[in-house]
Amino acid sequence: MRHVINLVCTVFFMASALPLHAGNPFEEVTQLDLWHLIEAGDVQGAEDMFAQSFARGLTDPPNRDHVRWLYEVFGTSAPKVSAFALKWVEEFPDSPFSHTAQAWVHYQTGFDLRGDKFARETYHDALRLFYEHHQKAW
Questions:
Q1: Alpha carbon of 23 to those of 20, 27, 28, 60, 131: distances in Å?
Q2: Residue 114 has pLDDT above 90, yes or no
């Protein structure tokens, strides 16, 4: 019985290390790749990355959350990321991807300004800025 359990565990471990879809270019797109685009200011590259990843998620359920995972890069109030998201919206005003990236930045910036205290313990201007950023995100 012990050998069977070891065999099952070994097969499971080896299978989990294999890619789900061999040759899938979207599996190779990582958050680091997106960071490189942000560093280079390449909004066209970001637009293409998100459009392709989104299209793949529509036809391939295991890749459905890949776009959401990529957007986590924009969950920051870092000036370089914020400037990139703004530039992306300016250059692609009709893109849902650019607006979603900008929304992630506003959402996180609002929380960074507000802090994690109860509302009654939070400075009034911080609550106002939190509200303003969250309004922009929506």
A1: 9, 8, 9, 14, 44
A2: no
- pLDDT > 90? residue 80: yes
Please compute the mean of the pLDDT values over residues 130-136 and round it to a whole number. Answer: 69
Report DSSP state, residue 93.
Answer: T
pTM: 0.70
- The set of residues, in sequence order, having a beta carbon less than 8 Å from that of 3 and lying 6+ positions away, is none
Cα separation, 4 vs 87, in Å, equals 57
- Four-residue CA torsion sign, 112, 117, 120, 123: negative
Give which of 27, 130, 114 is closest to 70, Cα–Cα.
Answer: 27
Alpha carbon distance 37, 70 (integer Å): 12
